[in-house]
Amino acid sequence: MDFSVVGQKIKELRKNIGLSQEELADGICTQAQVSKIEKGDVFPYASTLFLISRKLGVDVNYFFDIGMTPRLDYVQEVSKQLQIARRNMDYNEIKEIVNAEEENPLFFNNNRNLQILQWHKGIYQFELNKNIENAENILRNAISLTHTTDKIWSEREIEILLTIGVMYSEQGHLEEALEIYHEVKNHIVTLPNLADFTLKTRLYYNIARVLTKLMDIDESIQFCNEAIDWCVQKDNMYLLGELHYHIGYNYELKGELEYAQKYMEKALIVFELQADDKFIQYIRKKIESLSK
């Protein structure tokens, strides 16, 4: 590992947010130790690096990556393009990117980087071929690339497991999906701090959707409410509109149309704030129908 690169990045991040060495060191180590770390003279203990990463607002794995991966900027750009394609549900684009990078030494010589490709390979294999068994094998192998202990799962490993749950849900294997989702929930609980707040939101939303399909309406509403509380706690609007809509949909299924309309109206406000046109017209029609 290149200690000097890690030290330089810590110094850069520290200056970007306006912290002195003494302020960064406060509650973690001495100012002299921070100075040595930034110069590359020493490498911090894992616990020290974790605390530094939290204060600088980055995932601790970021420092391990830049210390062990040349051209990390290229790897990050590929990861970004895969994320964009995933959100746009452009699975052919995901396939092209993965196929183009599989022979790249930046990926096949580094398990954490290779995991990114294998994760997305499992996604496009399922979405394009609908072979859940093959896709799950790829995703399980992707997890095993970095998974060293059953006690603690990394956020990415948890997210890959969540992907498997989503696949089972989409195939209508609801009980299997719910079992995986609860496994994901147990792993999230063991993490001292979530870098990606949306992971928990996505999990609870997916659990709620499965519970609705299983007609366990009240528990579905409970998970939606817990997810909304989490969004508010973290000051994050991701899926906030969908969660309010889903509560409204649950109340509609229960025949409690007044409550259904109330939550649909809350969902509409969120989607209008986000300028999310694909849902706005649909929800307006739902509200109009409920009001009649």
Question: How do the strands and helices of this protein lay out in sequence?
Answer:
Elements: H1 3-16, H2 21-25, H3 31-39, H4 46-56, H5 60-68, H6 72-87, H7 91-101, H8 105-108, H9 111-129, H10 132-144, H11 155-170, H12 174-190, H13 198-213, H14 217-233, H15 240-254, H16 257-273, H17 277-291
Beginning-to-end CA distance, first to last residue: 66 Å
Q: What is the C-level CATH assignment of the domain at 70-187?
A: Mainly Alpha
Rg from Cα: 22 Å
**Share of helical residues:** over 70%
In short:
With 292 residues, the chain is mainly α.
What does this 3D model show about the protein?
The chain is mostly helical and 292 residues long. Among the domains are: 3-68, lambda repressor-like DNA-binding domains (434 Repressor (Amino-terminal Domain), Orthogonal Bundle), CATH 1.10.260; 70-187, Tetratricopeptide repeat domain (Serine Threonine Protein Phosphatase 5, Tetratricopeptide repeat), CATH 1.25.40. 77% of the residues lie in helices and 0% in strands. It contains 17 helices and no strands. It has helices at 3-16, 21-25, 31-39, 46-56, 60-68, 72-87, 91-101, 105-108, 111-129, 132-144, 155-170, 174-190, 198-213, 217-233, 240-254, 257-273, 277-291. α6 runs antiparallel to α7, α6 runs parallel beside α9 (111-129) and α11 (155-170) packs parallel to α13. The longest helix has 19 residues, at 111-129. It is globular. 34% of the residues are buried.
